[in-house]
Amino acid sequence: MSVSQNELLQQMDDRPLWRRLGWFDWVWSLLVAAGAVVAYQKYHSLMDTYEIAILAGTSISLVAWGWFWKPVRAYSLAVAVLSLFALWLYGDDLARGEQSFFLKFLFSSQSAIMWMSALYVLATLTYFFATFTRNEFAGRVASSMTWSATVMGLVGLMVRWRESYLISPDVGHIPVSNLYEVFILFSVITALLYLYYEGKYRTRAMGGFVLLVISAAVGFLLWYSFERGAHEIAPLVPALKSYWMKIHVPANFIGYGAFALAAMVGVAYLLRSAQENRSGSGFWTRTLPPLEMLDDVMYKSIALGFAFFTVATILGALWAAEAWGGYWSWDPKETWALIVWLNYAAWLHMRLTKGWRGRPMAWWALVGLFVTLFAFLGVNMFLSGLHSYGEL
Amino acid sequence: MEYYSTGQPKSFESDLVIEGDSSSEPVEATIAVNHPLIYQGYAIYQASFQDGGSKLTFKAWPLDGSQGKPKTFSTAVSEAMKVDTSQGPLTLEMDDFRLFNINPAPEGSGKKFRNFGPSVKFKLRNAQWEAREYENYMSPIQLEGRAFYLSVVRSQVSEPFSYLHIPADPQGSLARFMAFDTLLHDSQQVAAVARDTAAETFTDLQLQNTSMQEEVVQTMVRLAGVFTAGGFDAIGQLVEQSVPAEKRARVTDAYMKVLQNLLSSAYVRVLQEEGVDVENGVSDADARFYEDAINAVAAIPAYGSPFYLQLTGFEQLQAAGLQIAKAPGKATVYLGFFLLCAGVFMMFYIHPRRLWLMLIPEGDKTRVLLAGSGERNPPEFDAAFARLSQQADALLNANHQRDSRSL
What we know:
The structure holds two protein chains of two kinds. By secondary structure, chain A is an all-alpha fold. Chain A has 15 helices and no strands.
């Protein structure tokens, strides 16, 4: 594994956060602040108080996030530059998506999302290739592909946001309103979480496993868009027209993404521990990180997912109180969200208070993915209710 | 209520005027989904939206051959009225009116949805309290390049819907079809058409057999009656009951030919009465209308209504369902939510760490034992603890050297 001296020092550094910031941190933070100010000046007449608060909150969180995890700075700059470039190419005319070369083949939301899909699938293969051949260079290529896919995915969402306004100002909305859009969000968030752990633990061996679940999401996405024409932008139903959607849905998907990551790390854990139990050493014991580390990633991921899932569920209750007049209506989606929440609460409780570790917890994390999957997809497919927005 | 250009609902809004105490001014406000009004601690929500008794005018076209012009009448949604029909007294219950009907567009039209326009839902209930549900669309709907008046029916909630497509004539009205249908239900007129048709056929074939000609006329009239009462299926049943198995196919063929002859002559007569020039044959469009009309006539027995209700006008009235809630504990609930979130984050990201320091005197020296535990996050605690013990070592060693110097 390549560990630069610098990185190692950074991890050992225990100076207070603000003293560790370099000039790039400050320049970048200023850029974020400037972006927020420009957005406010240009559009504040169209925003209500809550939306202004969301804008401010997002900017502050982004800065904090970038300070905490450095690659976010370059990532956010790349997304911003490419999105702005695409927006500039569009101007006020949606038809330019077919005429302009860059839009047609790279940055219109449809093309960007296709690039994202292709890159995630290639990255999955490359990660596994790198693991099997123990090829350092292939591993770096896989990481770059994942980063590029993640950039393209978020650019796709950003451009789609604008495209919805170009169709007609009253159709415009943040692209988190149907299954197609949230699947992109899910892929992007899961990949970002994974990349964080890849950097933190300096191992690429988990990449193939995590990207496998992203590839599955991409497969669904492609089927959904080719078979059902789901990529078309549809206007929002009245119940979704609220600033709450802007925070409720993304918070939920941080939860889902983290749970998916934990489940795939659980798979890696099970493979390695099975081999350790059987023969003591083998392919997986040579290539995968030690069990304690996998266990730690699993725990951290579930903890993060649980925290955000809690916030998302509470935000949902607050929204429900405003839109439907009650915090909780036992709608199938709500019931299943509660089941998911209780499932992970039990997992965390067993680990933190009873000290459970090892294979049962890995299996449980994997089963948790299926519970999550049902809450996220199955409810839309098999049950109807107040949350029937992303129908299959 | 507002709609998108595609006809999908965009927002449900209600303008409210609250008359409070006589001393205060009435409060005026607009509420919408996601935008309730908070008034003196009560939250008023837009909970539902429905028809508030839209006024509707109809033209009722008889389908059962009862003579007379279509009757016009007006009613309103959620009203019921008694009607005397050939099926006995029926109750007509107006259930709902919809201004827009967004349906999936046919493949290849380039659009995902299209708007079928206004429709009305109603029930026809008989004396036995059995009801059939209907939904009639106001304007003709384009299907495969032709315009149809569409009516949807089911006799039980568990049954699938069946559709009646009545072709619209070139003027976009029901008049031609209704004239055709009325003619077919009138046995005297049918007999007249049958006589002309038979005479023509016999002349063409240069036959001079009056008794046989009369027999053919009788057969035509009978077949027309069977057809209008039960569609093509009824003809099949008639053959099955009255003809031995080996001859059925031939007889059915012959019956169909005779029936088609009669129906087309009847149609030509309708066209002539309408003033269409048929000297040079029937135009393609009129020929297609004939096909569609025959299908519609065949479907009428299953349709089950003695008349077709054409919606001719409406005045939409909307009603809003409001929900009023008072939540005096709101602040407490919000505080609880906040504490729950804060608690969860603190549990995961503020780690309790414990350190023990043990001083063991050993002669003139003191052995320092440092121990620690951090259960939440062992790997990071390990690193932190290693650093801490290193620092402690360095510190103690430095002090030790200074101490020995001073001695």
